[in-house]
Design goal:
It is found in: Vacuole membrane. Helix content is 36%, strand content 18%. It has 117 residues and is of the alpha/beta class. A 4-stranded parallel sheet has the order 2-1-3-4, with helices on both faces.
Length: 117
């Protein structure tokens, strides 16, 4: 049985620059089944591929936090908005070409609703 103590990885769905920076910071991991903890998204990446990676990362028992570039989260916004599990924690992050927009962040919207803002 998996507990939160088994969750030791960051997973990332992002553009090439974001992924490169995070890999240089040491977050990259490939498990014994050759599954990576990151997906590089470019203009040719299909929405279905992004959806599949999101589902995979949110169902894994070794991922503590899933980082996703906000502009990529927008491509699968209904799926992101439906995600409510505490683990892995979902964080939308900016990218070099797309600044962070708090009005689009599903987690921030939920927090604001909880605190009555």
């Amino acid at each position: 049985m998996s507990t939160h103590k088994n969750r030791t990885l960051l997973a990332v769905i992002g553009d090439e620059d974001s992924i490169t920076g995070l890999l240089l910071a040491g977050v990259g991991h490939i498990n014994e089944n050759q599954k990576k903890n990151f997906l590089v998204v470019d203009s040719k990446t299909q929405v279905a591929t992004i959806e599949a990676a999101f589902q995979d990362f949110t169902e894994r028992n070794d991922v503590a936090i899933l980082l996703i570039n906000q502009h990529i989260a927008e491509k699968i916004r209904p799926t992101v908005d439906r995600y409510t599990k505490p683990f892995p924690a979902l964080l939308e992050i900016p990218s070099k070409d797309f600044p962070y927009d708090p009005s689009k962040d599903s987690v921030l919207k939920r927090v604001q609703k909880l605190v009555g803002e």
